[in-house]
Structure formats: structure tokens, C-alpha cells
Description:
- By secondary structure, this protein is an alpha+beta fold.
- It is built from 8 helices and 4 strands.
- It folds into 3 domains: 88 residues, GHMP Kinase, N-terminal domain (Ribosomal Protein S5, domain 2), CATH 3.30.230; 40 residues; 138 residues, no CATH class.
Amino acid sequence: xxxxxxxxxxxxxxxxxxxxxxxxxxxxxxxxxxxxxxxxxxxxxxxxxxxxxxxxxxxxxxxxxxxxxxxxxxxxxxxxxxxxxxxxxxxxxxxxxxxxxxxxxxxxxxxxxxxxxxxxxxxxxxxxxxxxxxxxxxxxxxxxxxxxxxxxxxxxxxxxxxxxxxxxxxxxxxxxxxxxxxxxxxxxxxxxxxxxxxxxxxxxxxxxxxxxxxxxxxxxxxxxxxxxxxxxxxxxxxxxxxxxxxxxxxxxxxxxxxxxxxxxxxxxxxxxxxxxxxxxxxxxxxxx
Length: 288
């Protein structure tokens, strides 16, 4: 099991250039890739998309990429460049017969333009970018699997609590009709002491109630859903959507049981079961 939340960073250093890719993911119902790239790397989006799309099946992934020199930072001022620029200006002054000598301000302006050209972002290397993206993916997968392990543990605990409530409902189910029969007889006896316990009308009424209050089918479907959910917790596939669907179906069955059973004891356990399901569904939203 993998969580949809995670972060990964990857680098590739080649020919004096460092390519860095970062991926951060959060919860989303479907897969969504968002690229936060500088203008000079806008053409790199297709390369990154080809690498990431097959690996991110659910969640919103924000991708950033940076290309920078990999060597040590150079001094902001290069005396050799200043000397070269000064010599070129003197030569130009002489050839154009300009009387005014070049000032320090002239040299600084020329040097600034030269420095901007030298520090321009180098063109990106598609192979290096893909390599850095795959490294970021591996780091992301490690974090998502680690978070997923915690998710699976919590989901097992919540499912166990929910199963305990379903077990209690299953044990109470056969007694619902009997308690309704006893209550009806008591009310009728209070109205008419001569009431016959084997009155045919009472028998028919009890049969109708037993049919309406029968929750055997709902309990059977709940057992099936719980078994599928438990199996899904050990799956290697991205099955967050199927787990979410099963949780919704279990919630629906609980609602049906609560409306059919007409029993305070059963209703108490249904409320507790739905509370556990709400917690479970919140956690399932994080599963890829």
C-alpha cells in the first residue's frame, strides 16, 4: 500500500551541469501532474511527463526542475575580464579618435552584460533530466510506501473495530423478532387479559415483521465487503478507489440494517459501526 502524500528529489551531474528534479504529491481522486518550471525549461515538460505519467496513478504531483552549474561558485569579479574589456575600450577609443578615456562606470556596465551572458541557464540535457526525474521518483516511492505502511496498519485497526460491531449485530439479529413478539403480546395482554397467545392474527403480524426486519442479506454482503477490503490492504496494486468504493458500500449496508432492524440494541451498534466507517473512509482518501 502506498500513500498519495510524499516528496522526492533527484539529481544528475553531467558536463559541469547539475540537473535537479523535485516531486511533491498530495491527495486527489485522479492523477494530476502540475509542472512548475522556469521559462527556459518549458520544453522539458514533455520529457518529465513521459517519465512520471506511468508511475503516478493517483494524486496531485507538483514537479519542479532546476539546471545550474555544478562547479564551485566563481568570484563575482574577474580581474582578467576587466583588463580585457579595458584594453578593448582603449583600442576602440584610439581607432575612433575619441578623446575621452573609458571610465570605471563604462567598464562595470560592459562587465555586467558579459556576466549575464556567461551565467545564462545552459540548454537542458533530456537524458540528464530523465535520469534526475527517475531518481526523484524512487525517493518519492520510498516515502509513499513508508506512509502507506502506517496507513495499512491504521486501516486494519479500524476495520477490526468495525468488524466487532458487525459481529455484535449478527448475534442480535435472531433475537429481534422474538423481542418484538414478546412486546406485542405484553401490550395485547394489557388491553385484553383474555388474549390467546396463539391468535392467528398475531402469528401473521409477527411473520410480516420478521420478513421486514430480516437483515441476513445485508449482513452477508457486509461480510463479503469486509473480506474484500481486508484482501485489498495487502494488494501491490494502486487500489485506493476500490477501497473507497467498498467503504461506501459498507456504509450503505449499515444504513439499511439500522432502518430495518427496529431494535434499540442493533441501532446502538449500527451507530458505532458507522462511526468507525467514517474514520476508515477518511484514511482511505490517502491511499493511492
